[in-house]
Amino acid sequence: MTAGDGRARLAVLLAALAPLLIWPLGHGRLLHPGPVAAGALFCAVLLASMPGRGLRLSAWLLLLLLPSTLAWTATVAVTGVGPSLASLESLTAGAYREVIDAAGLALRLPSFGVVGLLTIGSVWLALRLARGCRPARGGPVAALFLVTLLPLLLVVHDARWGRELSRWLGPEAHISVPVLFQLGSAKSLLSETLDRAILPDNRLAKLPRDATTARVDYQAEPGVAIFLVGESLRADALLRPGRGRASDALAERLASGLGQRLPDACAGGNGTFVSVPKLITAATSPDPALADGQPTLLALAKAAGARTAYVNNHEIWVVPEAGHDWQQKLSSSYFSASDEQAIAVVEDFVQRTRAPTRAALVHLYGQHFPYHERYPAGLFPSEPAGLSGSALDELRYQRAAEFGTQLLLRLARFMDGLAEPAYLVFTSDHGENLASDGTGKQFHAGPVNGRHDTTVPVLVLWNRAFADSGRPQRLAALARQAPPLAHRDVAAAWLHLLGAPGPLAPTEPVLTWGAAQPGDRPGVLPCTALGP
């Protein structure tokens, strides 16, 4: 091995390891740092020991993978954990504003700036040195390459001995080491592409929804029924004592008998694109793919005789459904509307529509990051001087939650002005991780489900006419249930208050979709198994 060859191999080794600096420099926590470090070193040695011109191939590969590596680094910097398929869903589904917001958060973090620049610089140096040297073709370098190549192939292809090595490395390494994550993602993408090509009608296909095709065998009871789906509101962020006047006023309303907070629910996942389709279709299966094509609860209300309004304050339709009387989307990839506008649309629909029963389904932007964009700037006092980082994020999150409470109160008081029975059911699509939890995780849609990003509040509010109708008694079984409720029970409660027949019984066992440990494949997960 020549001196130039040695320098080039060392540069490739360091370039492959550079992104891993995000773990000690960021706020994320590794459960098993030893196996993760071993996996990272294993991949780096493989790239650096490529014989002959393969070394240049390694350097070019690092350059080609640089955008993916920086995206991986940004994800760890922002969320404290490796990427997940759920976190990529926003991009593939077209929610570009969420991706841009997340990128903006990463660019403001010093840890990402330092590691990103080191990664770019080390890749550039590795490519320059590899192109300017004569790499060794055989000897110890080739032997080292073969020693590391065979186990990696066994791991990627899930061969017999590879499974043993995978168990030794642990699943956490597969999302905590960029090269392993990129190999696993490529394998999954190839497998899904082949599935779609060979079986175009399989369950991976997105099926269209049309509300006019839904059928039920009951008649909706007269009045107004509203189902509100919030965003990123964790269970302990609703009705927080002493946070603001709205929370205090809402607590007083519940004490007066004009509403009820039900036991907290376990969301169907910790990401919007997993949980919302299952929630608003009251899906009985925890598998999100099986909710595709099923009618929403609003379609069932329409089939029962209600005039319906579908209001969406997200930049895309997470669950598009044609055939409703009113259909309005407020936010876009370029403009994020306040949830106050969505509430105004619902009020307008109720006032303008002449029908015995009116039903509305509303998907709010809620408390989704960036938190300070979710409430009017002048609504709260100036932010305390010197507050920054996670402390500032949490102040803004609680202010966003308080503003959301104001909107719930506004809609409740609007219902108070109606002579007919009116009620609303509110829950969130998923929760949120905050720095004060001490888990090293932030935000949501990560590869590991936890109590904070999966447990959500459930609130039912009604007017006096609805209270006098006796219909709130239908919630008794859910109110007595020990938490958590199944998320689908929240949708079922809305339908039963509307007039769906039969007893409203809690679902058991309560299941979600995701992973309990880093690197585990998403699947059915008991909510009782969720950690912090």
TrEMBL record:
Residues 226-500 form the Sulfatase N-terminal domain. GO terms for biological process: lipopolysaccharide core region biosynthetic process. InterPro entries: Alkaline_phosphatase_core_sf, PEA_transferase, Sulfatase_N. Coiled coil: none annotated. SUPFAM superfamilies: Alkaline phosphatase-like. Keywords: Membrane, Transmembrane, Transmembrane helix. The chain crosses the membrane at residues 7-25, 31-48, 60-85, 105-127, 139-157. GO terms for cellular component: plasma membrane. One of its GO terms (molecular function) is phosphotransferase activity, phosphate group as acceptor. It comes from the Bacteria. This is Sulfatase N-terminal domain-containing protein.
